[in-house]
Amino acid sequence: MLTISRLAAYAGVTVRAVRHYHQIGLLPEPERDRSGYRSYDAAAVVRLIRIRTLADAGVPLARVQELLDAGPEELADGVQAIDKDLRAEIRRLKDTRKRLARLTAGEQPALPRSVVGYLDRLRGLGVEERYIEMERDAWIMVAARVPHLIDFVIAKKHEQLDDPDMVKLYSFFRGALDWPADDPRVVEIADIVERLRMRAMEAGEAGADGFDDQFVDLLDSTMAESSPAAERLMAILAERGWKGWTRIERVPADSLDTDLPP
Questions:
Q1: Do 27 and 47 meet the contact criterion of CB atoms below 8 Å apart?
Q2: What is the DSSP letter of 96?
Q3: I need a labelling partner for 188 at 20 to 30 A (CA). Which of 37, 55, 180, 215 fits?
Q4: CA nearest to 177, candidates 225, 240, 220
């Protein structure tokens, strides 16, 4: 008969591991003898070796119990299921490593790669960094809200940048955040935005797919609060019958608010 330390040595594990297996029910705990010591037989050694073999092979301890006494077919099925789980975990870890690599390369956390490419394109148009940062934060929220749509939305944004009016619109974002509300260029921007909205409505593109009203209001308020010129721009658009900024909505003339800021 064997002591716990001798059992552990024969099976190639630690005494602490044996006690843990007792605690979780993998290895039956023998009765103590008259001297107060536990004694183990050959069957315990064999079972402990099988536990160690399964654990070393990557079988989670929570699943070792079901495989210990399984027949050949049950063992094969169990191993295949575990292998499937491991392959899924490997894919997850690879994705995690890719995200970490993007962070070390200087990319912003929570920002999809497609958005990074789009913002870089805006930089190429000369858009100032303060506006880039504001748009970046908005895209972080959008990507978190509709992660399954973000790449599609960004692809549409790239298509829009092929429109000369859109390029001209972004050309204004070189100091626009510092414009006063009465800057005459705000009206010119409103004219461009209105043309873009008319074309979008004709194409059946309202934008803000998958966004609830509260989220749209959040994005709109972020835009309006970015500068006095932005607030004035949204007021001009509202006077012309366009509601909000994120979602394209045409408001009937008889429902317009006549108390908008001048």
A1: yes
A2: H
A3: 215
A4: 225
Q: What is the pLDDT of residues 88-142, one digit of tens each?
A: 889 888 888 877 776 666 556 677 889 989 999 999 999 999 889 888 888 888 8
* Per-domain boundaries in the chain: 4-102, 110-255
Q: Which of 13-22, 35-44, 191-200 has the lowest mean pLDDT?
A: 35-44
Q: Into which CATH architecture does domain 4-102 fall?
A: Orthogonal Bundle (1.10)
What amino acid occupies position 109? P
CA distance 215 to 39: 67
The residues that bridge with 40 in the sheet, in sequence order, are: 2
Q: In a 3-state reduction of DSSP, which class is residue 28?
A: coil
Q: Which residues contact 233 (CB under 8 A, 6 or more apart)?
A: 186, 189, 190, 193
Cβ 236 vs Cβ 187: under 8 Å? yes
